[in-house]
Automatic annotation (TrEMBL):
SUPFAM superfamilies: NAC domain. Keywords: DNA-binding, Nucleus, Transcription, Transcription regulation. Residues 170-181 have a biased composition (Low complexity). The keyword Nucleus applies. This is NAC domain-containing protein. PROSITE patterns: NAC. The keyword Transmembrane helix does not apply. One of its GO terms (biological process) is regulation of DNA-templated transcription. Residues 157-202 are annotated as: Disordered.
Length: 202
């Protein structure tokens, strides 16, 4: 499958879904446990609110040649107790602060979901990490206090070249499989010793 994806990328394939695509096509399939095989490599499963963006950037590669760059995650956001709308946005030692939200409508003009935009804040200061959180209107998308969403995390296009977020985003290191260690060949002298010590056949 990875070779198939690499071939598509070499032919100019772009994984650059719109908000409507994410909400009406990809998110329902992920919720149902039936992700698209050709693109599941681009939407990773991770606890976005259990890690800071720098930690996620070190574990997951950005999507190649995607507009805005960045990474896509299938995750769940939790509601605060006693609130049906307010959700927790704490991530590590920082917090995702909501900037604005926008209704997402299909071609018929019917609302199908919502996109909320966030900026990561840590130690009292805003960073250059931004995130889009895509919500589905379907009732089955909500399970108890958790709501499955697709998040798109990326570095602000306005971030300066020496921005800490840019450096963190570029820090991903492809995990290489551990090399297989083969046993060294048995020494000829030892083989002869074993042969001499072998008991004679009865």
């Amino acid at each position: 499958m990875e070779k198939h994806v690499e071939k598509m990328l070499s032919l100019g394939f772009r994984f650059n879904p719109s908000a409507e695509d994410l909400i009406t096509f990809y998110l329902p399939r992920l919720i149902a446990g039936k992700p698209m095989k050709d693109t599941e490599k681009f939407i990773c499963r991770a606890d976005v609110y259990g890690s800071e963006p720098s930690d996620l950037a070190g574990k997951f590669a950005p999507v190649p040649r995607c507009e805005k760059g960045g990474r896509f995650f299938f995750t769940s956001c939790k509601r605060h107790k006693g609130s049906s709308t307010k959700k927790e946005r704490t991530a590590g030692a920082g917090t995702w602060v909501r900037q604005n939200s926008k209704e997402v409508k299909n071609k018929a003009g019917v609302k199908v979901g919502e996109t909320q935009n966030f900026r990561f804040k840590k130690d009292g200061s805003y960073t250059d990490w931004l995130m889009e959180e895509h919500h589905c209107c379907r009732q089955q998308a909500v399970a108890g206090d958790e709501e499955p969403v697709i998040c798109r995390m990326y570095v602000s296009p306005r971030a300066p070249p020496d921005s800490a977020a840019r450096q963190e985003s570029a820090a991903f290191v492809q995990q290489q499989p551990a090399p297989q260690v083969s046993e060294p060949p048995c020494d000829k002298k030892k083989r002869d010793d074993v042969a001499e010590e072998a008991p004679a056949a009865a």
